[in-house]
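W.,

You were right to be curious about this one. When I first looked at the sequence I had no strong expectations either way, so I just let the prediction run and decided to look at it fresh. Below is the sequence, 111 residues in total, followed by the output.
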Amino acid sequence: MKPIRHNNKVKVLIAMSFAVIFSAIGNVYLSRGMRCVGEMGYECAREAISGTLMHPYIIVGVVFMAAFLLLYLASLSWEDLSYVLPLTAGDYVLITVLAFFFLHEHVDVLR
């Protein structure tokens, strides 16, 4: 294993801050897109999948999730998993806030 330098921790903090934001935005777009598409069933699965993958909200969501993945992978190349993974926890809070404001989901204190 390579030695960890201090500047890697700063790089990871910056990269993962953006990664968490991208992940939260991506999840909101995916959720909104799936609300537009509706329930997916087993009948006509091919049409349902192709229609889903071509929906603009789904495409934007996938792009944001891909950006998250690239930043996450870069962070893992700079630091240990035990340092990088806990930084993704902020994603849960941010997604909940975005879901409340942009998806108009009911969010109570227990969530």
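Here's what jumped out at me. The mean pLDDT is 90. And, maybe more interesting for your project: The radius of gyration is 17 Å.

Coffee later to discuss?

I.
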